[in-house]
Structure formats: structure tokens, C-alpha cells
Amino acid sequence: MTVSILAYDEKTGSFGGAAMTGSLCVGGWVLRGGAETGLSASQGTAPSTLWGEDVLRAMAARKTAAQAVAEVTAPDTGRAHRQLAAIDPRGRTAHFTGDQSVPVCGALEGAGVVVAGNMLSAPEVLVATRAAYLASSGAMPDRLMAGLMAGARAGGDSRGLLSAALLVVSRSQTPLSLRIDRSAQPLADLSNLLAAVRTEPYWGWTRVVPTLDDPYRAPNLVTPEPLPIPNDRDGAILR
User: Fold this and answer.
1) Does residue 14 carry a pLDDT above 50?
2) Fewer CB within 10 Å: N-end or C-end of the chain?
């Protein structure tokens, strides 16, 4: 049903997640996180948005991704129908795939990256997604898009694609959260949306609003001189 990728770039401190599926609204269902908590991707036949939030809370409490995933998935009696991937604030990854997930299903890890999927057209989808991300260079959004594109070329969701999403967060930059909730060509639309947000004036605006590292950031506006206050006929200042 869904292909997702979570990644951490140690050089820039950026966390990124991306997902695509043959159903609606993949971004709202699957991707969650922030620069202080790490990221999660919760998916499956009966995906749990609770898993997505709970694993972030566990990682924020200094649990490793592996500890957090185990803690969240173990008590859930419906876990056989669900899948979860996570990357913690130190870039460590973990995943869980329930044993009743729709094949082809599974997950792969790499250096600072985890890819997960179910109802895939072939196992090569996961391999291609991870390989393209690791082989690409440039900014996190571009590397994630390279991963999704490669996964789609390898077959993607066995039903085809209907929605796609991108989430990139870091301490030094404002969040980038892009969603294509329903489209006949969601990856092309997501790529076009990414290009659009990089144009001015929007892109310039994102460089002056607050970030975790600079929470009071604002434009350098020149404060105008106050206008003189007129006097009334008796010389008293009007209030």
C-alpha cells in the first residue's frame, strides 16, 4: 500500500521523510516528526497514527529508535496488520513489519536511512528507493525525491500511485511539509510543488521566520519615525 523513506544527513543536521501510495492522503497518515524528536512512518493495512506519535514521544525521551519501535509495537494486539519505521534524533533507525502485512512487504536500512513498504509490485522497490537516496547528492528534499522516483520506476505500489508527500526538518531551517493528497501523477506534482516553494518571494520568506536555532528571527524592518502629536488650541497635547 505504501512506500516510505526516512533519512538523516549528519553533515547538515537535516531529517527527511517521503512517502507514496496508491491511496489518498499519504502525508497525513504516514509521516510525522521534528528535528528534536526524529521522524516516524506508520503505515499498513490498518495503519496506526497512534504508533506514529507514540514512537516520537519515546525517542524524545531518549529511547533509541529500536527501543522505541519495540516499546510501541509489542503491546498492540493488531500489530500484525501494521508497519512502522523510525529514525531517532541521533540518526539511528529501526522498523517493524507485521506478519499479516500485504506482500510484497518489508524494510531495509542503510547509513542514516530506512525504507519500508507493503503491497509492493516487487522487492526491488525497496532496494531501488534506498540505493537512489544513498547514491544521490544535494539537498535532502532532492535526495528523497530521487528515492521515490527510483522506487516508482521499480514498480512502486502494486495498485499504482495516487498520493505522495515530503517532510524535511532541521534545527536551522523552517519545516518543509509538502503533500499531494490525490493525483493521477503525484510524484510529478510533488516535484513541481517543491520547485514552486523554492521560488521567491516564498523561499525568501522561509529564511526570515523563526527556527529552533533562531526562535526570535524576523525581517530586519526599519522602524518609521513617530509622527508628531498635534496640539490643541490651548497648547495642551492631545491624548
Assistant:
1) yes
2) C
Report the pLDDT value the prediction gives residue 226, as an integer from 0 to 100: 53
Note the pTM of the prediction, 2 decimals. 0.91
Residues 147, 126: Cα–Cα separation, whole Å? 9
Of 70, 135, 98, which is closest to residue 1 (Cα–Cα)?
Answer: 98
Secondary structure letter of residue 64 according to DSSP: -
Please give the C-alpha separations between residue 123 and each of 5, 126, 209, in angstroms, as whole numbers: 15, 6, 42
Question: Computed from CA positions of residues 20, 21, 23, 27, in that sequence, does the dihedral angle turn out positive or negative?
Answer: negative
pLDDT tens-digit map of 86-125: 999 999 999 999 999 999 999 999 999 999 999 999 999 9
Per domain, the residue ranges of the chain are: 2-206
> What nine digits make up the cell of 126?
525497496
CATH class (in words) of the domain with range 2-206: alpha beta
Residue with cell 524592518: 221
* Residues ≥6 apart with Cβ < 8 Å to 222: none
pLDDT given at position 237: 35
Sheet holding 14-21, edge to edge: 106-110, 113-118, 2-9, 14-21, 163-169, 176-180
According to the 3-state scheme, what is the secondary structure of 76-144? CCCHHHEEEEEECCCCCEEEEECCCCCCCCEEEEECCEEEEEECECCCHHHHHHHHHHHHCCCCHHHHH
